[in-house]
Each structure stands twice: as structure tokens, then as C-alpha cells.
């Protein structure tokens, strides 16, 4: 009987996290939820749970090419280092991803992006990745600037998704910056 209760609570808590904000402070922010979807990454043998939020509803979400970029960035990283089924540790971690698309004012606001390790006052962002400051565990965040060209958004998504793969599949405490930079030239 106890087993059933634990299972039920586990299912319930997983359900309540799915589709919600990654930071409780951002519930007050004027984001619109675009969608929650399951993205199958064949070579990684994973199904990612991805939720998209935007403050720029007039711009089409990167959701339209997310699966393509997820597959391409996984394949590129796997071609450079042993990750996933090819590695000694086997499968990668599978944290849910929350993607936030923001205009230039919000993404560069020190108030909104309170968790970002800003280097100086003049620093400006196109994208960011975080898995350390989220409200719920097993949640990773990708932030993208919305008011740039489609191609620039795709390249920025490739950069930030490579940070995700490195975090989930290598997990050595490094960000994998040079791999992220290399992924930009996929598109
Ligand atoms: Zn980077």
C-alpha cells in the first residue's frame, strides 16, 4: 500500500512541475506560455520535455526548429567526445528544459536575469544557459534573445543547447564553451 502512495506522489509531483516556470520569481513576469512538447532525440535515445515561454508573442517561437537543432548539436558533440551510449557512463541525464524568448530589454535587465554572472555593466546577451539556479531540481533553462534574425536565433539556440548536452552528458563541472562556439557554425 505504501508503495502505491509513493508512486502516486511521485507522479503527481512530476505532473505539477511539467510546463511550469523554472524560476518562481518569473511567475510575476509577463511571459506567455507557447507550448510544452516532447522532443525525441534519436541518437541520444532520449525524449526531452521542453516548455517554451515568450515575452514577444509577435515573433514565431524557436519551437519550430528546436528538434532539428537538438539532434544536430547532440550529433556534433558526440562526434568530438564520447557521450551518451558511446561513453563509459552510458545515457545522458535527461533534465526538462524551459526555453525563454525575450526582447533585448529583458534579456539585458540585471533585474530579470538576476542569476546570470554578469561580467560588467556594458555586457549584452544573445543567449544564456542555466541549470544551477532553477526552483525545481532536474530543470535546465535556455534564454534566447527574440528580436534578432531567425538565423541568429538558430545559431544561439545551437550554442546554448550544446551547453545543455555538455552539462547532461559530460557533467565535469565545465561549461564546454569551445564546443558551444563550434556548434554555431552548424547553421
Ligand atoms: Zn557559451
| H/I helix tally | 5
How many domains comprise the coordinates?
Answer: 1
Say which molecules are bound, naming each kind only once. Answer: zinc ion
Largest sheet: 5 strands, mixed
CATH architecture: 3-Layer(aba) Sandwich
Strand residue percentage: 15-25%
Name the CATH class: Alpha Beta
Oligomer: single chain
> How is the CATH topology named?
Glutaredoxin
Structure commentary:
This protein is α/β, with parallel strands linked by helices and 187 residues long. It has a single domain, classed as 3-Layer(aba) Sandwich (Glutaredoxin). The protein is built from five helices and five strands. The protein has helices at 2-17, 66-80, 104-107, 150-169, 177-183; strands at 32-41, 46-54, 96-102, 127-130, 139-145. A five-stranded mixed β-sheet has the order 1-2-3-5-4. A hairpin with a 4-residue loop joins strand 1 (32-41) and strand 2 (46-54). Helix 2 packs across helix 4 and helix 4 (150-169) runs antiparallel to helix 5. The mean pLDDT is 91.
Keywords:
single chain, five-stranded mixed sheet, alpha/beta, Glutaredoxin, 5 strands, binds zinc ion, globular, 187 residues
How are the SSEs ordered, and which strands pair?
Layout: H1 2-17, E1 32-41, E2 46-54, H2 66-80, E3 96-102, H3 104-107, E4 127-130, E5 139-145, H4 150-169, H5 177-183
Parallel strand pairs: 2-3, 3-5
Antiparallel strand pairs: 1-2, 4-5
Helix pairs in contact: 2-4, 4-5
Bound molecules: zinc ion (ZN).
Amino acid at each position: 500500500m505504501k508503495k502505491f502512495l509513493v508512486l502516486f506522489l511521485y507522479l503527481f509531483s512530476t505532473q505539477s512541475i511539467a510546463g511550469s516556470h523554472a524560476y518562481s520569481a518569473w511567475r510575476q513576469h509577463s511571459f506567455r506560455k507557447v507550448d510544452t512538447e516532447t522532443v525525441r532525440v534519436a541518437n541520444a535515445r532520449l525524449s526531452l520535455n521542453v516548455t517554451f515561454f515568450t515575452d514577444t508573442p509577435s515573433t514565431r517561437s524557436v519551437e519550430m526548429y528546436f528538434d532539428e537543432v537538438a539532434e544536430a548539436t547532440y550529433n556534433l558533440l558526440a562526434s568530438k567526445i564520447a557521450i551518451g551510449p558511446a561513453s563509459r557512463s552510458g545515457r545522458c541525464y535527461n533534465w526538462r528544459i524551459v526555453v525563454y524568448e525575450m526582447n533585448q530589454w529583458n534579456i539585458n535587465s540585471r533585474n530579470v536575469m538576476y542569476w546570470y554572472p554578469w561580467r560588467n555593466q556594458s555586457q549584452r546577451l544573445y543567449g544564456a544557459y542555466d541549470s544551477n539556479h532553477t526552483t525545481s531540481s532536474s530543470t535546465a533553462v535556455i534564454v534566447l534573445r527574440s528580436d534578432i534574425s531567425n538565423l541568429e536565433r538558430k545559431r544561439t539556440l545551437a550554442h546554448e543547447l550544446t551547453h545543455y548536452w555538455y552539462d547532461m552528458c559530460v557533467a565535469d563541472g565545465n561549461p564546454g564553451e569551445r564546443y558551444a562556439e563550434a556548434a554555431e557554425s552548424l547553421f
